[in-house]
């Protein structure tokens, strides 16, 4: 038995960027939805057979959910229900990009994409960025030189930098994708908390776009339900029909059903609003305590990107907050390709269990920052 490991006190996780728990609202909405599913459906009908791309009802609920962001409700046959965004990404990256081809993405991005590139054998073409995300000229240059098959896009509250593209930037990037025939895989997972955000990139090039909207960051990470809108019904079938590659991406029907009921009855709206309110309250405290810091975030963002002075390497900062029992994320975690990561850290606001734990963690970050 490893006594020293067992006696190590647990670090407070502020490196993740999960949504805050909102127990009174979530518990009531989820219980009601789960009870209603069990009352309205015969369990053996619901669960007794595969529902490959999602049942008709679940796909219709998905169409309604994504229409929170898209200009119109997409037809149900363009929707696929999956057990989370990562599953959708694996299917799309394997099908649209695949071994030996290139994926273009921002130079700092969701690190899981690197894992998928290693597993699936495609290359990564990172693009330098400003506070909106990919720089258009550099993006076009990569499209010309590397001929990427697809762009992994996160134009709203980008992970990790919180970069958000203006409508103008979205239009420009979409046009470049059209010019070079680059498919768009848009991961819009952080878009539901802000009240005012531009329309998705996909709205500017729908014929090339795979629009992905998961519930992990707006409702709960372990719901394991995400929706993808394919450019056409035929494309949805071509990429996701169960005979295509693996089938592990399918959503368990009970999960899909409960989320469908949450969407149909407004339970999802109540959960999202409660998470928004708690996130804004935590972000107000961040803004107050880190008032003069070089901090990039938004009132309804689940993470913040803190640049450090050159005299304070991120690795030292990480070690100092760790010594105070807090875990935050290093910028190197998010670096794509050979770029030198900026001297910065990312911390999440939602993962500490309650406001008191969050303030304890933030106090430690502020203390180390001001040292
Ligand atoms: C950009 C992005 N996409 C997807 C996910 C995970 O989504 P899921 O749990 O639905 O696979 C994360 C989680 O950190 C993320 O940051």
From TrEMBL:
<dbReference type="InterPro" id="IPR015424">
    <property type="entry name" value="PyrdxlP-dep_Trfase"/>
</dbReference>
<protein>
    <submittedName>
        <fullName>DNA-binding transcriptional MocR family regulator</fullName>
    </submittedName>
</protein>
<dbReference type="InterPro" id="IPR004839">
    <property type="entry name" value="Aminotransferase_I/II_large"/>
</dbReference>
<feature type="domain" description="Aminotransferase class I/classII large">
    <location>
        <begin position="74"/>
        <end position="300"/>
    </location>
</feature>
<keyword id="KW-0238">DNA-binding</keyword>
<dbReference type="InterPro" id="IPR051446">
    <property type="entry name" value="HTH_trans_reg/aminotransferase"/>
</dbReference>
<dbReference type="GO" id="GO:0030170">
    <property type="term" value="F:pyridoxal phosphate binding"/>
</dbReference>
<dbReference type="InterPro" id="IPR015421">
    <property type="entry name" value="PyrdxlP-dep_Trfase_major"/>
</dbReference>
<dbReference type="Pfam" id="PF00155">
    <property type="entry name" value="Aminotran_1_2"/>
</dbReference>
<dbReference type="GO" id="GO:0003677">
    <property type="term" value="F:DNA binding"/>
</dbReference>
């Amino acid at each position: 038995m490893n006594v020293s490991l067992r006696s190590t006190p647990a670090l407070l996780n502020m490196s993740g960027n999960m949504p805050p728990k909102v127990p009174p609202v979530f518990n009531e909405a989820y219980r009601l939805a789960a009870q209603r599913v069990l009352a309205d459906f015969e369990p053996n009908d619901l669960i007794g057979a595969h529902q490959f791309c999602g049942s008709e009802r679940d796909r219709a609920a998905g169409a309604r959910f994504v229409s929170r962001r898209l200009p119109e409700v997409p037809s149900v046959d363009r929707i696929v229900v999956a057990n989370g965004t990562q599953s959708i990404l694996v299917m799309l990256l394997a099908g649209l990009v695949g071994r030996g081809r290139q994926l273009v993405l921002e130079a700092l991005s969701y690190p899981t994409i690197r894992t998928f590139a290693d597993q699936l054998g495609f290359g990564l073409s990172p693009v330098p960025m400003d506070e909106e995300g990919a720089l258009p000229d550099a993006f076009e240059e990569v499209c010309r030189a590397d001929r990427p098959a697809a762009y992994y896009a996160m134009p709203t509250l980008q992970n990790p930098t919180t970069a958000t593209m203006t409508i103008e930037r979205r239009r420009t990037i979409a046009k470049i994708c059209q010019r070079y025939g680059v498919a768009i895989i848009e991961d819009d997972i952080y878009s539901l908390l802000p009240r005012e955000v531009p329309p998705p990139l996909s709205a500017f090039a729908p014929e090339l776009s795979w629009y992905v909207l998961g519930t992990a960051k707006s409702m709960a990470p372990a719901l394991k339900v995400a929706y993808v809108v394919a450019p056409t019904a035929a494309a949805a079938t071509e990429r996701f029909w169960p005979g295509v590659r693996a089938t592990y991406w399918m959503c368990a029907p009970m999960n899909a059903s409960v989320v469908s009921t949450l969407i149909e009855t407004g339970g999802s709206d109540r959960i999202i609003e409660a998470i928004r309110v708690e996130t804004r309250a935590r972000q107000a405290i961040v803004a107050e305590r880190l008032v003069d810091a070089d901090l990039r975030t938004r009132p309804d963002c689940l993470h913040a990107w803190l640049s450090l002075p050159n005299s304070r390497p991120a690795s030292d900062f990480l070690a100092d907050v760790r010594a105070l029992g807090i875990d935050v994320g290093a910028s190197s975690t998010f670096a794509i390709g050979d770029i030198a990561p900026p001297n910065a850290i990312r911390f999440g606001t939602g993962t500490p269990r309650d406001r008191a734990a969050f303030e304890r963690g933030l106090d430690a970050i502020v203390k180390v920052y001001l040292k």
